[in-house]
Amino acid sequence: MLGGPRILDGYGRVAIITGAGQGLGQSIALEMLDEGKKVVFVDKSKQKLQKLDDDIDEDLKNKTMFLTLDVRDKDAIHDAVQKIITKWGRIDILVNNAGIRKSTKVEDISLDEWESLISVNLTGSFLFAQAVINIMKEQQWGRIINISSFAGQYGPLTSGAHYASSKAGQLALTKILARELSQDGITVNAIAPAIIQSPEMEKLDEKELDEIIHNIPVGRIGEREEVSKLVSYLCSEISVYITGATFDINGGLLMR
Ligand SMILES: NC(=O)c1ccc[n+]([C@@H]2O[C@H](COP(=O)([O-])OP(=O)(O)OC[C@H]3O[C@@H](n4cnc5c(N)ncnc54)[C@H](O)[C@@H]3O)[C@@H](O)[C@H]2O)c1
Asked: Is the Oxidoreductase keyword given for this protein (predicted)?
């Protein structure tokens, strides 16, 4: 049949984006809102979420939820999932984007600092995925995207061993989840950006950034929209045959 109705096709899908207060997460969340999805902006910063809530068009307000929580907090995640289900009755998409980065050398990393990066970047992704998979299984439809990093594939570029280890851990988590959920209409993929324009990246000093750009074949850092469009594709109906994959988005910095 030509031109028949397409199942939901973006409209009506409910997406959770963690770390949506700024940077990549914000761009991913706004892209999904643009496509007609209902979007849950999650961030530990109430202030960033409040600003977004204030700035968003009045006619989109009924498609947004803003939840302040720390992705390390299992109970808070559970409460958030309950709130979303009460309001919208389903959860289709989870983008584990919240992350922190440090560039401390191994000999100087304290145990607290190590545990803090692993728990936000890796444990947070695990906890959120664990909290939504039964809902996605019931729906027999789900998309989980873990925003990992080039650092998790290649080792640190501008980051420490704790950051790279947490990002490598997300790649392993992606593959295991993809395998475990493959019979339930749920796909799980990872994205591995190298350097993408963001408030965090603006903290790099100019000399360091110039050196990095010098090594990127495409000759520039990436744009946030280039990542958010890729996430959108992986969350679409047509991407159903892609699971357990890692998508490099790095201007050719790593070719494999
Ligand atoms: N920007 C890049 O070049 C780049 C490259 C590779 C990977 N990444 C990954 O992409 C993701 C986003 O990067 P970004 O540059 O936009 O970061 P960013 O620092 O600009 O934004 C991260 C957001 O996550 C939130 N956050 C931090 N810890 C949290 C927690 N415990 N609970 C809830 N929210 C928390 C912050 O408040 C912030 O709003 C991160 O996982 C990062 O590792 C970014």
From this structure: yes
